[in-house]
Each structure stands twice: as structure tokens, then as C-alpha cells.
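queue> pop job 88
queue> type: inverse folding (structure -> sequence)
queue> payload:
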């Protein structure tokens, strides 16, 4: 399965493109694409952890509890459904 949009989430669970996490999610998605192209990656767990770290940094910079909560939500979603996208 492939998600062609550089946004956070998938389908109805997506954040708008102007969301503060969009660039972090785009980087995360590129790691998943590299895996699908059989390029070297640091591994799915590490890639997901990097996403969480970057989103938490953004939330801290913005001093936003809402963004912090969203960071954990989207990290959880990545952990739950990421295997579908981490193509072999």
C-alpha cells in the first residue's frame, strides 16, 4: 500500500498540509519510500522514533499541549499501521 501525499496521516486521519508536523511527516514518509525501493534505512522502529522526536520538538517550540498530544497520537498510528506501508 502506498500513500502519495506528503502529509500527516492517511485518508480521514490526515492533518491539513499547512499543519506544523507536515514536514516531519514528509521526511518520515520518504524513509518508508526508501524501504519500498529496497534502499538502506535505519529500520522502521528508528524511523518512527525519529518522527516522534521531531514532532515533540515542534510541540515544545510552539509551547502547545495540543501538538504534544497530536504527536503521540500520530506516533501511535504510525506504530499501528506503519507495517502496511513499510513495504518489502
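queue> result:
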Amino acid at each position: 500500500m502506498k500513500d502519495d501525499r506528503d502529509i500527516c496521516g492517511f485518508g480521514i486521519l490526515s492533518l491539513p498540509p499547512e499543519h506544523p508536523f507536515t514536514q516531519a511527516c514528509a521526511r518520515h514518509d520518504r524513509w518508508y519510500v526508501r524501504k519500498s525501493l529496497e534502499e538502506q534505512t535505519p529500520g522502521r522502529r528508528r524511523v518512527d522514533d525519529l518522527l516522534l522526536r521531531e514532532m515533540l520538538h515542534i510541540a515544545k517550540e510552539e509551547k502547545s499541549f495540543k501538538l504534544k498530544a497530536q504527536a503521540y497520537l500520530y506516533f501511535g498510528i504510525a506504530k499501528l499501521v506503519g507495517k502496511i506501508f513499510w513495504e518489502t
